[in-house]
Amino acid sequence: MTRHRGAAPPPLAITAFDGNDAERVLRIITSQEGRKLSQLELAEGYKRLAAFGWSNEQIAKKMGRTRQHVNQVMVIGNANTDVQRMVASGEVVATTAVKAVRQHGEKAGKVLGDKLKQVQVAGGSKVTPKAIRDPQVPRALLDDMHRLCKSIAESFPPQVRAAIGEGAEVITLTMKASQVERLVDLVRAADEALTEAES
User: Fold this and answer.
1) Of all helices (H) and strands (E), which one includes residue 43?
2) Taking 70 as the threshold, does the pLDDT of residue 80 lie above it?
3) Other C-beta atoms within 10 Å of 73: how many?
4) Is 112 exposed, middle or buried (0-12, 13-18, 19+ CB in 10 A)?
5) Where are the domains of the chain?
6) CATH match of 21-132 with 1.10.10.2830
7) How far apart (Å, rounded) are the C-alpha atoms in residues 129 and 93?
8) What is the largest CA-CA distance in the chain?
9) What are the pLDDT digits (tens) for 16-29?
10) Do residues 83 and 92 touch, judged by C-beta distance below 8 A?
């Protein structure tokens, strides 16, 4: 449409919003004209809705998201500013920040900062869930340990079970040497696996 100098601009259609203050905030969050909001922007909106008394379930329903999504976004929204800064800059993936805050609370920023330095030394640029994952004992070792412990527990004589049921504080057990040896081997193998995973 071509305008001539001095011509009035074309009229704009303006529709008045009907709804209360909470619904107005919801409209602001959901009507970003296709622009995807960052986790921090969403968190700010969700926190405003929560201040109106909305539960995470209500927010999830109105947003068409899961309650888990809302819970995670709220964790980021309530995290310390050092964590929020790292999420905003892209140095830390949002899901990783959530995990760190849940695990480390107030110390999450320091933990993430330390992990970021390690990642950067290794040539990376952001802390991902893999970078913060705790070392784990291999599943095969856990399965072996479970089978052995189950075998030991099932071999307890009735008087030992009765003493446990009566709340005895000290119980004397007789075990096969092969079971004790196997248990010691499994614990050593698990320790070695954890040490290797940490390095």
Assistant:
1) helix 39-51
2) yes
3) 27
4) buried
5) 21-132, 139-198
6) yes
7) 7
8) 102
9) 556 666 776 776 67
10) yes
